Amino acid sequence: MSIDLSILSTLSMFALLLIPVGIFIYLQIGLVKETLISAARMAVQLVLVGLYLKFIFAKNSLFLNLAWVLVMMVAANFSVLGKSGLKTKLFFWRSLAGIAASTLIVSGWFIVVAIRPDPVYDARFMIPIVGMILGNCQRSNVLSLERFYSGIRNNENEFTTYLMLGATLHEAIRPYLRTALKACVNPSIATMATMGIVSLPGMMTGQILGGAMPMEAIKYQIGIMICIFTAMVIAAMVNILLSLSAAFDEYQRLRPEIFRQ
To answer: Where is the domain boundary, 38, 59, 80?
Structure first.
């Protein structure tokens, strides 16, 4: 049985922010305002989402569930393009297609093949699972896109040499694609290798705190970690490949206007 936190207990957790804020002030890092604003936004957004999810769980409508999934993917897409330094208007639909493909394919497999709830669109399963997979795809896409295009931009002479030696565009980008994929998946590989020994993952911990038996929670955690890792690789690969047509001109040169100033 889970133990509910009172509003006062929840608010007391914000006192912990005094530690990082104090460090930021001492080192004059300048992240105090950003930290406090982000924490406040997180609290407000989660409360509003909690109220909305209560409504969604009660209705358990296929249309409402899919609409909320679409909202999450669009929000994640804006965040990916903003943090990767690429112009939204040039890459929005390409990036959204990559995020949607990876998230829906993998989460659909986990829900339909592994869990098999009744109904299959049950909001208690669809929303949290899609959210966990999407959140990790968001982080991997930011890292992979930034590493890929900054790598080509910072090594433009090397990239041009590949092309002049007869390489096609896909052959010339391969070294930078490998670097980008390694950068986005290495943390997840390290996490999976030490999971259960170094850390107890969030989904498993949440289910145990909610009253589930440890072995039941472990099976769910194994499934979601494999899904997250697979979706991250698919999203990073597909997003980079779909972005190529907008990023390079007819002479296979990287367009400088794709980057935010």
So the answer is: 59
DSSP conformation class of 251: T
d(CA 153, CA 151): 5
Amino acid identity of residue 240, one-letter, is: I
1 pLDDT higher than 60:
no
Q: Nearest to residue 235, comparing CAs of 180, 190, 156?
A: 180
230-256 pLDDT, tens digit per residue, is: 999 999 999 999 999 999 998 899 999
Count, residues in the chain? 261
How far is it, in rounded angstroms, from Cα 72 to Cα 87? 20
Q: Please report, for residues 182, 202, 203, 226, the alpha-carbon distance to residue 189 in angstroms, rounded to integers and kept in the order given.
A: 10, 16, 17, 10
Instruction: Name the DSSP class of 85.
Output: T
Residue 206: per-residue pLDDT: 72
Q: What is the pLDDT of residue 113?
A: 92
What are the tens digits of pLDDT across the range 126-138? Answer: 998 999 999 889 9
Q: Indicate if 74 and 40 belong to the same structural domain.
A: no
Token digits of residue 85: 């330094």
58 membership: H or E segment, kind and range? helix 32-59
Number of domains observed in the structure of the chain: 2
Distance CA 78, CA 88 (A): 7
Are 117 and 210 contained in the same domain?
Answer: yes
Range of the domain at 21: 1-59
Q: Which whole number is the average pLDDT over 61-78?
A: 93
126 in the same domain as 33? no
